[in-house]
Hints:
Blueprint: H1 4-25, H2 27-34, H3 38-62, H4 68-88, H5 92-120, H6 126-154, H7 157-178, H8 190-195, H9 200-220, H10 223-231, H11 238-263, H12 265-282, H13 290-318, H14 323-352, H15 358-393
Helix pairs in contact: 1-5, 1-6, 1-7, 2-3, 3-5, 3-14, 4-5, 4-7, 5-6, 5-14, 6-7, 6-11, 6-13, 9-13, 9-14, 9-15, 11-12, 11-13, 12-13, 12-15, 13-14
Amino acid sequence: MNRLPIYLLALGVFFTATSELVVSGILQVIADDLSISISLAGQLITAYSLSFAIGTPILISLTARMGRKQVLVGSLTIFILGCLISFASGHIAMLMISRIILGVSSGVYLVTALGTAARIVPPEKLGSAIGTIILGFSSAMILGVPIGIAITNWLSWQAIFIVLALFSVWITFVIYRLLPDIDGDAPVPFRQQFKVLGSLVIVSGLLFTFFRESGNSILFTYLTPFIQDIYHVEFSRISIIMLVFGLFGAFGSRFGGYGVDRWGAARMVTLSVVIHVAVLALLPLFADSLMIGLVLLTVMVVSMFMSGPAIQTYFIQQAPQSSGLVLSINTSIVHLGLAAGAGAGGVLISTSSTVLYNPWLASSIVTLGLAAVLISFWSGKQRSVKLRGKTAKL
């Protein structure tokens, strides 16, 4: 199997994800440069997430029958336009428009890249291919954000986006030249595509995504203050800790993809979520031990990233004719879950005046996700039994 196209798709995800993640690291710089409040600057993240969540499913449905290479090149071209507008932005309104463009184009590219990977690899390698694509996203956290901050310190925050635009022009050209032509989805009626969203298998799977991402966000949104306040770690050491977490997250993505191919998506999701719930429940009990706390957090990061390739693969397997639509809605729910979790975590901190109990709330929410995904697995098995029964009668 030629893995070059998969690596090219993952590289594109790295660039698009960097445009999303880097803003949180330079938010104060943007606010100072544009003479706006930090709260207003924070709406740049909200604009990106909302455009990603709302625009992606709509555009994925409208472009479902187009060739996959055409959609990938088109979304990257619009992404480049968004980067150029960001580079030229001297006012918050213009920058906000660029974030909307970047959010929609990045969402379409990510979902199309996942679907394309599923089409160009044999079924037994699907998990590894999806894991590689997701590795592009986690690499943006490990490398993209620190590089973006370094560029900001060296030149300016606008320079980040011209660099992203230039590299994206290159990856667009390479994808156009080297990626094989892949037809769009079969002409399935629009109404029939949306019927899949009424399936218990898919609905409970999407609920899993919402609860999982909400639980993650309850802790991870406030992870820096958690490490500082609970473990009394100096701020200067936080970046090193985050780098280590990122590296283990990348390992989790790769191992998750490997595990899907070897043991199946359902087993990998179940294993990763059980570990995730257990670690979150244990964290407050070891608040006095920095070493145990950091080990537990590292294990949690690995388990989080393990489940990413598994759930994406699971959706592709369960809804092959509507995988683009389901994956796009799943990515939308990811952003909604992150927002809900951040809000719930903030309320808990305000109520308790400490971040210590956020892991327990997160554990309970992720447990709801575990229940939802087990229902999805059960429903999927029941559906398979019925289909085999009908086949046998024919």
